[in-house]
Amino acid sequence: RNGRLHLFVFGFVLLGCLQVEAATKKYQFDVQVSNVSRLCHAKPIVTVNGMFPGPTIYAREGDRVIINVSNHAQYNMSIHWHGLKQYANGWADGPAYITQCPIKTGSSYVYDFNVTGQRGTLWWHAHILWLRATVYGAIVILPQQGTPYPFPKPDNEQVLVFGEWWHGDVEEIVKQGNAKGLPPNTSDAHTINGKPGPLFPCSEKHTFAMEVESGKKYLLRIANAALNDELFFAIAGHNMTVVEIDAVYSKPFTTSAILIAPGQTTNVLVNANSAPGRYFMAVRPFQDVPIPVDNKTATAILQYKGIPNTVLPSLPQIPSPNDTAFALSYNKKLRSLNSPNFPANVPLKVDRKLFFTIGLGKSVCPTCINGTRLSASLNNITFVMPQTGLLQAHYSKMKGVFTLDFPDKPPTPFNYTGAPLTANLFTSHGTRLSKIPFNSTVELVIQDTNLLSVESHPFHLHGYNFFVVGTGIGNFDPAKDPSKYNLVDPPERNTVGVPTGGWSAIRFRADNPGVWFFHCHLELHTGWGLKMAFVVEDGPGKDQAVRPPPKDLPPC
Q1: Cross-strand bridge partners of residue 542
Q2: Domain Plastocyanin-like, which positions (predicted)?
Q3: Which of 148, 372, 430, 472 has a CA positioned 20 to 30 A from the CA of residue 242?
Q4: DSSP label at residue 176
């Protein structure tokens, strides 16, 4: 009996150990200007803690994270924790003038949030102007202690964040473009963990290298922080197994290359089972329309232990920049794991159907070249940023900041992806939002159009994941296309790539009250107005309403 009692006590203690306490993780982010040298040229850039890229945030599922952001730079600042759901807590979401006014120079703001029901790789970035060109970093959410990955356990992990680098001051370059009404100059290099790699001048020491041991397995946590470029990524001599996208486990598949749009994250497993040597990891853009793009290849090195640096690395076979077939077939392979532990709860019944058209166009600009400036719209509306945080206006019932009349469909249907359209390119402007009842299910079809030009667009929804239930080329057909939807194991993401001259259909349940930004994650297009926001109403329960704002919310 005594032995049984001991066993009972031991079992109770073990159970206590397994019921892991959620921890509080605290970070201090000092936004400051630092001198950084790349491509034979030094320049001052805005950084967090003097690091480029910024620090990686580590947390476990269930943790509370508190990040104090102190702004010592000359620009207003706000930081978005991309892909974190921020349940009823939009105050911690970060997009300037949507959920908060920016943190002014000399001020601080505390982002305080819980990581609930999420695990995997996400990322954070500045969400004002183009400051995310240098203000970004990874977020690694580990599973709860004692919860294994649903794939073979890696021997080691490595974060890889892709970015873009400009020789000049990015904000000045953007200002010059805007003054002319034209896109700003494209970037001068792509980077892997802030480094362009040895194919660029003065970059031998600006090359990221990762050491591996033969026979071991590695998890690469990849985020695309580039401002305007979808990127292909490949490793010479090694295949990758995709196991997660946007911090959601996916059905594993093996591929020679991945495609990742700005805003997206992808976790892959790599086996170090090739002949020991040095191998290039490479990124270069995917762009299947004739639009100017920084088409240069950034590289990093996968180096087997004990191999000298004198061995020249080999380059991978990477899809060609306009390889639409690879892009479409790769995205078709992405599916939710949909296991008992990680189910795909796809809404099967839809309460609200939305159809948004993407339009590029022109606005009158007397001081610009040709008297017009490029603009962009959803359902023919170019979004106008307010001067007050929309969440504050919604919470405090302020009048005159926004209207709730964003249309559910475009004002005039047309042959969206037919011959290029240049007539009627002038759009209406406004801060118009779409109101969604709490807990209703939404289907949103995002349709690319040939207004000015077709192009692929990565769309990000704040505050939610969604299921990509369908995608296609050409015009969406409401009579035929829904019958082809995948409602069993569609990919679950926070950022969807709408294909060039095509459409994507997403579904989500509006169970997170607040004001949530929806925008193209190409910084160029966001700046032109390719954005809007949803107001999700409060629910009836005590935890189903937007929380009161924090006391240190930045003033407008």
Answers
A1: none
A2: 31-145, 158-306, 405-538
A3: 472
A4: H
What is the pLDDT at residue 426? 63
DSSP 236: T
What pTM value is reported for the model?
0.95
Would you place residue 422 in the very low, low, confident or very high pLDDT band (cuts 50, 70, 90)? low
Report d(CA 458, CA 358) in Å as an integer.
11
| Whole-number pLDDT of residue 454 | 87
* In contact, 185 and 177? CB cutoff 8 Å: yes
DSSP-assigned letters across all residues of 108-125: EEEEEEE--S--EEEEEE
Phi/psi at 370 (5° precision): 65, 5
Q: Rounded to an integer, what distance in angstroms lies between the CA atom of residue 142 and that of residue 413? A: 46
How confident is the model at residue 475, as a pLDDT?
A: 97
Length of the chain measured in residues:
556
Q: Which of 121, 200, 201 is nearest to 161 (CA)?
A: 121
343 to each of 149, 245, 248, 337, 488, how far by Cα in Å? 15, 15, 10, 7, 10
Give CA–CA dist 236/217, Å, rounded. Answer: 16
Quickly list H helices, 71-216. 170-180
Closest C-alpha among 243, 283, 241 to residue 262: 283
Q: Which two tokens stand for residue 328?
A: 């479409």
| SS3 at position 481 | helix
239: buried, middle or exposed (CB in 10 Å: 19+, 13-18, 0-12)?
Answer: middle
Residue 513's nearest CA partner among 544, 486, 480 is 544
Amino acid making up residue 443: E
438, amino acid identity: F
Radius of gyration from C-alpha coordinates of the chain? 23
- What one-character DSSP code corresponds to residue 227? S
Strand order in the sheet with 108-114: 41-48, 24-38, 64-71, 108-114
Order across the sheet with 79-82: list the strands.
Answer: 57-60, 136-142, 120-126, 79-82
First-to-final CA distance of the chain: 69
Are 193 and 164 within 8 A, CB to CB?
no
Residue 325: burial class (beta carbons within 10 Å; 0-12, 13-18, 19+): exposed
The answer to whether the beta carbons of residues 49 and 79 sit under 8 Å apart is no
User: What dihedral do alpha carbons 95, 101, 107, 111 form, nearest 10°?
Assistant: -50
